[in-house]
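Contributing new complexes? Match this layout with adenosine-5'-diphosphate.
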Amino acid sequence: MDLSTPLARALPEAAYKQLRKAEAFETVADLLWLLPRRYLDRHSDLGALEKDAYVVFIGTVVSASTRPMRNRRGTMLNATVRSGEHTLALTFFRAYGHDKKLVAGRVGLFSGTVSRYRDTWQLAHPHYEILRDGGGDDLLVGIRARSGPEGSDHFEVRDELDHLVGDRAVFPVYREVQGIPSWTLNDCIRLVLDQLEADGSVAEVVPPGVARERRLPGFLEAMRLLHLPATRDEPHRGLRRLRYEEAFVVQVVLALRRREQAQTAAVPRDPRPGGVLEAFDARLPFELTPGQHRVGDDIAADLALPRPMNRLLQGEVGSGKTVVALRAMLAVVDAGGQAALLAPTEVLAAQHHRSITAMLGDLAEGGLLGGADQGTRVALLTGGLPAAARKEALLQAASGEAGIVVGTHALIQDRVQFADLGLVVVDEQHRFGVEQRDALRVKAGQPPHVLVMTATPIPRTVAMTVFGDMETSVLDELPRGRSPITTHVVDNPRWYERAWERVAEEVRQGRQVYVVAPRIGESDARGAAAGEGFEQAAYDDAPPVGEEGEAARRPLRSVLDIHAELLDTPALTGARIEILHGRMPSEEKEAVMAAFGAGDIDVLCSTTVVEVGVDVPNASVMVVLDADRFGVSQLHQLRGRVGRGGAPGLCLLVAQDAPEPARERLAAVAATTDGFELSRFDLDQRKEGDVLGARQSGGASQLRVLRLARDEETILQARADAADLVESDPTLAGVPALAAAVRERIDERQAAFLEKG
Ligand code: ADP
Ligand code: MG
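Output block (do not edit by hand):
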């Protein structure tokens, strides 16, 4: 018997059937991974009760009877339960359902808050779970909470119930599995563990040497510590092992991938003196920041190697990633290759195309009359392009005439041909995984160099887990002369009016304003944040579903509403107010963005299309409506649209009646403009899967016990151990169970990718 043994073969038939009915437990491992929610300590003493004491105890039903209520309709149930030498009355004002379960002789686990009724202690509507259908009066134990609400896990125990708990002082409580008592679950798990240990055929995933070094128990021992602990500390030791193992498998997957990449060949792109890069540097209107220099050097060195660069560039919003990317692209052009720049939205692709063309000036007119000698061409390739323009761009890409091709991510899926694709830059994107890189490999013949730029800074553990197969560079300083951004939460109507006056002031001074709403407003009942797939945030951080509560029922503000409202706002009379959203035709979107960029629009009402990357230095105010419906990094991104020029930035987060977690989120965003700090906050507040997404995480979204916000130490250790192991045993021949676990991770990842397309 091992972990993949079907549960049916490990349990008595009756027990298996009961479990099977409740949930899809397939294998022995499925059951073992049902980890306890909390632990109770043994305790007795229903003899010394006080009012409002919270008690949990195991007791035997001595008697139970129902009777009609005197003043009301309905039937009530009174029962007496004995635990040790003490008894306690239970009262239910609706007998229905309970009368079938609370039958004299049965043994149950009861919990509730004690009250006094006519000189006796009683529990009104306690929670309970029948453990055994009867089993004699000798099954007596009491467990009483010393203090704290139900669910707190500190209990003090004194009595005994030997043949239920043996001499254990602690016993586990599992989550609700369709009415199956914790006890039965624990019994089943014990049975399974006993057999697994007896058979001795569970192979360790973590090599014994590593486990010894890190002082970790073996896998089965860890499971025993968790399910059948003798002391309060044991579950922690068990958990430590499981966390480590999870981190270790992920890190081995990543270490193997790094190794594979190191052995892949790519065309080295050596720098060429006197080329377009030098010409570009010479005419840059600003000094590069030290960070931009440093990262630029790293990239240049990578590009010159005969294996594919695979680098993640993390940068604070506004830190100047585009220039870094452009310089890398120009280096590749100098070396005779082409570069593709992929943006998450058409708006952003068009902007990149515009600004790169502008920055290059006549360097972007290679081959044209009047173009510079070393010049090249920059082509734009997006889905919304008119047929003729698209054809022209395709031709330029295929012939190699365009040294730089800018497009949306669809570019790598499309049947776009390149003459010699040497570098792919992925802008503002977290989710550019192994699979996309594989698609590129197919496209380019030999794998191109890849530079991924993230929309928002990410915590170190996320970088190491999600992007653990990439080199990382960080741009953590902003260019000089940046203006500070002030952020306020606007949560009452009076401030709301004041906000528009503030906007009007700014417009009068010749500056520009973004107003972002969560939906468009036609017939899209759902929020734009969720509904407009093609405008999806680069960082998948819409607030968790279900959090909205009351606020969910309030209609969300829409772009069309707010546009109408602002046109009617006296303070804004005469202001040029326009709209922008993803449902507009491409040319229209582009025309609006271009007009806003040129200063011909004062107030732009839009969806989150402006979330990432949009760069209009004259814009000074960002108003976000229903800000509670956006995630932390989305808000940080939105705010990053202002304060890019000489004027101080102002960000107003409008949110009324926001629920608690959202208010915390808004307060956090208002409190700091440090993206790294915010990303850590974000990771703390949200679940792993939400942060990682299923796609690019090397299976990390399936993490069961590892928490990236908490387990940095573990992840670091696992990463170091994984690198050592893969170096000494790259085929994992010495650790077959690990090899199998790694294969499984990779398969899961591919399955997730195929599902998502
Ligand atoms: P992000 O990292 O958010 O993508 P961008 O690349 O859009 O930032 O840069 C933001 C703005 O800063 C752009 O207008 C860019 O031209 C400008 N910029 C970039 N580097 C510098 C620099 N070293 N000094 C001054 N301005 C810079
Ligand atoms: Mg950018």
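Reviewers usually confirm one structural detail per submission. For this one: The longest helix spans residues 234-262.
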